[in-house]
Design a protein that fits this description.
The complex is a heterodimer of chains A (98) and B (752). Chain A is mainly α and 98 residues long. Chain A has 3 helices and no strands. Chain A has one domain: Helix Hairpins (Orthogonal Bundle). Chain B contains 30 helices and 4 strands. Classes of the chains: A mainly alpha (98), B mainly alpha (752).
Chain lengths: 98, 752
């Protein structure tokens, strides 16, 4: 029942997210790519739940909850960084180094 | 109480329940003296700091005057026992003004003078009582009292136990008896020393350890005493440690003795590994299981003899004893002549069973003893320091004792040990009172000359008649003139050597290819030669010290007088002992008296071992042979003394300052065959070199400091540097590393 297709879509979405995280420097876009990876995983959970029962769907609810919390905190951090530095370009934000 | 009940339960021993149960008190008494005198010494350390500056300055100013300023005797006798090398002496005296600003007498001197000798006298009294009890019982087996279990681990069980038997009690009698006399003498000799309580504390501690050494019922306890007396020897040699030469002499004695102790320890390890016992009874029983004459028992005995050679100053480890003369003279008498240095002889007599099973080791002991006796006697011929003469004489006489115990005449060795304790203590104490008087005289006039050099003495018989007479008695004794003590003991040893050249296990053994009988003849010849030299150098010492004109100096002569009674009284007692000591063990041909008393007395301890050496028969010489040997011995002694009396001219001797340097062989003797220099080149300098270049620069600085300490720090810093470069703060970089890692892990899993 299209599980393979759903998993393939999930993998594509995940890879797009990974590439976005690796290549982009804007914090907002990286953040969106992280969300994309989370949702790709959610999609594969849902797909697997067709085969193995409802556990996967329960996990999706959890992931969405965590993602919501993460979005709130992450966006707050990004806003405060912007207020401080007038930029969200991560190549300029490297204070935590050895 | 429990111990008494146990002993009573064992029951069988005749000494159980007698006064011998109190044997533990004998060493405890000197220990008590050590504690009391040590505490008194500590209190004064706190008091004699710079807490009283006014007194210090007053005294200090006093020394600003000319030398006559200390004619008041207000300054202590630190220089009394120094080596007195001229080059040191001048500076040394200057130092004194600053060092010894202490009061004349120590504040607790009176108490110390009572406690120090009193504990020894009490110990002597108790030992005598036990000795009498032993004399009455004369048991065949030793009486052992166990204090407590000392070491118990696995198969090893060692008790803190004391053994009362004929040998240990004879030794205890000598130690406490001669020790008491020397303590009394010290009261006079050390009276003005600022370290008076410290001196007596050390001396009491020494006697405690010495008694532990001879009374201990097993080798480890003996070793405790062995090390303890070494410690006290070190402390007392360096008693005047502000002078570097004295401190160095102490260190030398301590370090040389460590070489010997290594041998003793190895011997103990071998014993325990093969006999599974370390107490004397167990070892004596277990030794009989060993292969007689085998490599194992020979190795045990040779390692044990290495320990003896260190403690008893035999070749090649004798070099520390002459330097040990840096200590106070009573210390030289007690530790470095009468008791501690004879510990090696005691150890061999104690291990007689082992040595009797190892003829090769016994021959080695006898040969080393003979070589040492001869070698040291030649050096004694040309020494000018009165104490150095006696030091080499002691080394030589110790060699004699080792000849005795080496040829299996254990009672003869112990006999010479006892008589030597009498006459050598007398000689040392006599030289002590000579030095004391010389020093007092020089002190009065502020002269810096050497108070120990015989070239500065001469003609002292007029001033010190008592010391003069007593020292002549001791000289006749050591030279072997009958009827003095040394004649009997020395003759006993030489006779035993001669008797064992045939019909003994030693004679039939071969020593590195040399037949034992040939070797024993050589030992006998060397013993005779050493006896000749002994007579010569002792007569020389007496001639230069007491006869001829006085060379002390015009001004000083008026201050020469006999030492106080507290110093001469012990000399008189020792003089009587030096005359009568021979009666302890009269030879068999003697018409009357207690024939061979000591020999029979020691039979339960060493008798079976001595019989094993002589193939079961009592060593016996024909009376005609014996008369001949005695005749030779007396002739040699008389010949030696007459050589010295006719050849040496004390009248033509000049004082040390005007003496020309000697040349040729005389110089070699005076410089002690340059043995110290040779050891310095061959051993000390290489060790210093290796220590400096390999151990210090290589191991310590290079390996430990460099590689381990700093190296690990550099390594941690390097790793940290790499880590800090990785942490760039670029989130993108981190993400890349993360992804590469994930891909690598997944790849590894999928390819597996």
């Amino acid at each position: 029942m299209m599980v393979a297709e759903a998993l393939a879509l999930s993998a594509v979405l995940f890879c797009i997210g990974v590439v976005g995280v690796l290549t982009r420097r804007n914090a907002i876009i990286i953040f969106m790519c992280v969300e994309l990876m989370l949702n790709a995983v959610n999609l594969s959970f849902v797909a697997f739940s067709r085969m193995y029962g409802a556990t996967g769907q329960v996990f999706v609810v959890f992931v969405m909850t965590v993602a919501a919390a993460e979005a709130a905190v992450g966006l707050a951090i990004i806003i405060s960084i912007f207020r401080h530095r007038q930029t969200v370009d991560l190549s300029n934000i490297n204070l935590l180094k050895g | 109480m429990l111990l008494l009940q146990e002993a009573a339960a064992a029951g069988a021993h005749p000494l159980a329940g007698s006064i011998a149960e109190w044997i533990w008190l004998v060493p405890i008494l000197p220990l008590l003296g050590f504690v009391i005198n040590g505490l008194l010494s500590l209190t004064s350390v706190a008091k004699t700091g710079p807490s009283n500056p006014s007194a210090f300055h007053a005294h200090h100013d006093g020394h600003g005057h000319a030398d006559g300023a200390h004619a008041d005797g207000a300054h202590a006798h630190g220089a009394l026992g120094t080596n007195g090398h001229d080059e040191h002496h001048q500076d040394h005296h200057q130092d004194h003004h600053d060092e010894h600003h202490a009061p004349v007498r120590h504040r607790y001197a009176g108490l110390v003078s009572i406690v120090g000798p009193a504990v020894l006298a009490a110990a002597f009294g108790l030992t005598s009582a036990i000795f009498v009890a032993l004399l009455g019982a004369h048991p065949e087996t030793p009486f052992v009292t166990t204090m407590f279990s000392w070491i118990a681990t696995g198969d090893l069980h060692i008790d803190a136990a004391f053994q009362v038997d004929q040998l240990s009690m004879v030794m205890a009698m000598v130690i406490t008896g001669v020790g008491t006399l020397i303590h009394v003498f010290s009261v006079g000799y050390m009276q003005d020393d600022p370290g008076y309580p410290r001196y007596f504390a050390y001396l009491n501690l020494f006697v405690f350890f010495m008694l532990v050494l001879v009374l201990g019922a097993n080798y480890p306890l003996l070793f405790v005493g062995w090390e303890g007396v070494g410690l006290c020897s070190y402390l007392l040699i360096g008693f005047w440690f502000t002078e570097k030469a004295n401190a160095d002499a102490g260190k030398k004695a301590f370090i040389v003795n460590r070489i010997g102790d290594f041998g003793f320890l190895v011997a103990m390890f071998l014993l325990f590994a093969n006999v599974q016992s370390l107490d004397f009874a167990g070892v004596n029983a277990g030794a009989l299981e060993l292969v007689s004459g085998g490599a194992l028992v020979t190795a045990i005995c040779l390692f044990m003899f290495l320990g003896c050679a260190g403690k008893s100053a035999q070749i090649p480890l004798y070099i520390w004893l002459p330097d040990a003369m840096a200590g106070p003279t009573p210390v030289s008498a007690l530790i470095h002549a009468a008791t501690m240095v004879t510990a090696g002889v005691y150890l061999i007599a104690r291990s007689a069973v082992l040595f009797s099973l190892a003829p090769v080791a016994s021959l080695t002991v006898a040969l080393v003893g003979a070589l040492t006796a001869l070698f040291a006697a030649t050096i004694g011929l040309k020494q000018w320091d009165i104490k150095k003469v006696l030091a080499y004489s002691t080394v030589s006489q110790l060699g004699y004792m080792f000849i005795g115990v080496g040829v299996g005449a254990y009672s003869a060795g112990i006999f010479h040990l006892i008589t030597h304790a009498f006459f050598k203590a007398l000689l040392f104490l006599g030289s002590g009172s000579v030095i004391y008087v010389m020093h007092q005289a020089y002190h009065h006039t502020g002269n810096h000359d050497d108070a120990q050099d015989m070239r500065n003495m001469g003609g002292l018989r007029k001033f010190m008649p008592i010391t003069f007479g007593l020292m002549w008695i001791a000289t006749l004794a050591i030279a072997g003139i009958p009827p003095f003590a040394g004649f009997f003991s020395k003759d006993e040893i030489l006779g035993a050597v001669y008797a064992r050249t045939h019909e003994s296990t030693l004679a039939s053994a071969t020593w590195f290819g040399i037949p034992g009988s040939v070797l024993l003849f050589a030992v006998y010849a060397m013993g005779l030669a050493a006896a000749l030299l002994t007579a010569i150098y002792m007569t020389r010492m007496m001639l230069y010290t007491f006869h001829g004109p006085n060379r002390t100096g015009e001004k000083e002569r008026g201050h020469l007088r006999e030492a106080p009674w507290v110093m001469t009284a012990p000399l008189i007692v020792l003089g009587v002992a030096s005359v009568a000591g021979g009666w302890l063990n009269l030879p068999t041909f003697f018409p009357a008296g207690p024939i061979q008393a000591l020999h029979h007395w020691l039979e339960p301890v060493t008798g079976s071992a001595a019989l094993r050496i002589t193939n079961g028969a009592e060593a016996h010489l024909e009376h005609t042979t014996e008369y001949m040997l005695v005749g030779i011995a007396i002739a040699i002694a008389v010949f030696g003394m007459s050589i010295a009396l006719t050849r040496l001219k004390p009248a033509s001797l000049v004082s040390k300052a005007q003496s020309p340097a000697s040349e040729g062989f005389e110089r070699i003797l005076e410089e002690k065959y340059f043995v110290d220099e040779a050891y310095d080149r061959a051993v000390v300098q290489p060790i210093i070199g290796v220590s400096r270049s390999v151990l210090w620069k290589g191991m310590d600085v290079g390996l430990i400091d460099g590689l381990f300490v700093n190296g690990s720090a550099y390594l941690a810093r390097g790793i940290g540097w790499v880590g800090s470069r990785l942490q760039s703060g670029q989130v993108g970089t981190y993400a890349w590393v993360l992804i590469i890692g994930v891909v690598a892990v997944l790849g590894a899993f999928s390819l597996r």
